[in-house]
Design a protein that fits this description.
By secondary structure, the protein is mostly helical. The protein has two domains: 122 residues, no CATH class; 33 residues. Helix content is 66%, strand content 4%. It starts with a helix and ends in a 14-residue tail after the last helix. It comes from Candida albicans (strain WO-1). Pfam families: Erv26.
Length: 215
Amino acid sequence: MFLQLLSYIGAIVGFVLLVLSIASGLYYISELVEEHTEPTKRLLKKLIYSIIVTFVLLLIFDRFPVKLTLFSIFSYYVYLQNLHKFPYVELSSPVFLLSCVLVISNHFLWFHHFNNPYIPPLEVRLRPDYVPPRIPTFVEICSFFGLLVWLVPFALFVSLSAHDNLLPHHLDKPDDKKKNNGLAKVLVGNLREYIYAISRKFGYELDPHHGSIVY
């Protein structure tokens, strides 16, 4: 019984450390992108064009579904529109909102495709010349999702910036000079402030700069 309780504690601690590691990585990458905006924009463009070509090759040589492949190519065309004003983005713009919908749609549609492979009718499978369709391996599916479904949306999320005057915590500062925050930095910053607020309710202060003036 004690060992089971210990496993729960270990799982919680491991999950917290994993979240903190991901948050730290997002923050660092966002800082890096802010310092190298133009190279990042060129890299993202080349990455999107390369993935579109890869989808065409998969359609020709691996007989991927035509409609779903064309849908993904259209999705990357929409992702590309986010780069016109890179790294700035309006969170309420139609292109950004459509990109968010397409990211989720691509994930579920391709997941459904790989989870329900096409099985030919029985009369086809009984033919002497029948060759069974190749079922992708787990590693191939993971690589497909990582490189062709998640990579560009994740890179855009880390790279794009939102105007401070579009964010809720800056609505009360109309005289502030306009500047831009990476979406990842905004998310990590809000999460950090939330953790600080929770810790203060329990009598702990985790913010090393709390109560001091930081220049």
